[in-house]
Amino acid sequence: MSASMLLLPRYLLPVRPARELQVGMAVRVVDGNIDAVLPRAEALARFPEDRRVELDRHVLMPGLVNMHTHSPMALLRGYADDLALDTWLQDHIWPAEGRWVSEAFVRDGTRLAMAEMIRGGTTCFNEMYFFPREIARVAAEAGVRAVIGNPVIDVPTPWASGIDQCLALAESLSDMVEAEPLLDMTLAPHAPYTVDDAGLSRVAELSATRGWRVNMHVLEAGWEVARSQEMHGEDTLSRMDRLGLLSPDFVAVHMVHLTAADIELVAERGVHVVHCPESNLKLASGISPVAQLLAAGVNVAVGTDGAASNNDLDLLGELRTAALLAKGSSGDPAALDAWAAIEMATLSGARALGLGDRLGSIEPGKAADLAAMDLSAPETQPEHHVQSQVVYAANSRQFSHVWVAGKALMEEGELTTLDVDRVVARAAEWDERLAVRAA
Ligand SMILES: CSC[C@H]1O[C@@H](n2cnc3c(O)ncnc32)[C@H](O)[C@@H]1O
Ligand SMILES: [Zn+2]
């Protein structure tokens, strides 16, 4: 028997066709996929047996795609703030991870992150953290779509002793995600400064033979530029290119410190870029030249980074920051307008994951990964330009409903697959354990 449902929103923001807001439309969902987008009256007449969901104060849009997360780090939110990337990582985060990260930490942190992301309209996230099988298990349990990065890092961690073990563990992650319809995986080398040439060559080779995408922090902080010259005698992107990494299967996260030649190379190779403006601002890493990347034809998506550097997983807030920064840093108020910002947080993310034909817009044949936002709050009234209200005015708690593959993960603001009180209670236990206030 097919499970069919009619979603009946006040406004539809489908992302494709581009720059279109539709009124009086219905979205029919059958067996987890979008079956049709058609006028409301026609839908009601043709499909009288379908379950109906009235969204008369809402805009219905594709679910948001958070293109860079370290979900378990939700338990390190506020642990070490107001620091630069190198001090933050080396003196605070890596020691804490060495001491505390375990399967239990990853499980509880991921549940906390899932609750926050679903409440904020996110239906898919691109992950990078230790114990990736545990993250995969929690995402599957919560019903969220996820691409799970298998870390590759040249230092011992509580999860793996070094590159050999990281790569061996990628095989067991692969077996696991193949059995889960909402999951996929990438290889996730941490950064150019934590994986040597031999390790990166093995990543490039495995990516080519196994078809795994590669997801990596690249050129986040200014010191990476000099360090690459010192350690390797060449600039970062030339090195990545020599090692065979730069391709349309490569997702480069941050990309703050780029030259004009770098931008040209990235565009030529079809590399995808993930912009994480709030983490870059908070760690004082700088501002990615997004307007120039877009002008060069690069696919730019958006991510929050972990809650230890952001300090939230609110992708809607992130896209507002991205839109405002693009204007402020380019001097062009039309840079990254509201339509472009919404596309960046939906379809561009899907494309970066190789899922552009399945996700990121409301079109027949795509997965029903959807989010509805209630616009009736004072903050989003009146409704002159709905796309502007979404980007420049709304807060993420105005998302009331979220579906992944047609399954409701949030209805009328209530999560259906996670017990928020339990998730928060568990986080509080970690708070006690880490006892950062006493330290
Ligand atoms: C290999 S698992 C992830 C690893 O990355 C660390 N991390 C978190 N945020 C950042 C960032 O912005 N730049 C570099 N590294 C980051 C995280 O703490 C884990 O150790
Ligand atoms: Zn990161």
From TrEMBL:
Substrate binds at E97, H190, E220, D305. Binds 1 zinc ion per subunit. Its EC number is 3.5.4.28, 3.5.4.31. The gene is mtaD. It comes from Marinihelvus fidelis. Coiled coil: none annotated. GO terms for molecular function: 5'-methylthioadenosine deaminase activity; metal ion binding; S-adenosylhomocysteine deaminase activity. This is 5-methylthioadenosine/S-adenosylhomocysteine deaminase. Keywords: Hydrolase, Metal-binding, Zinc.
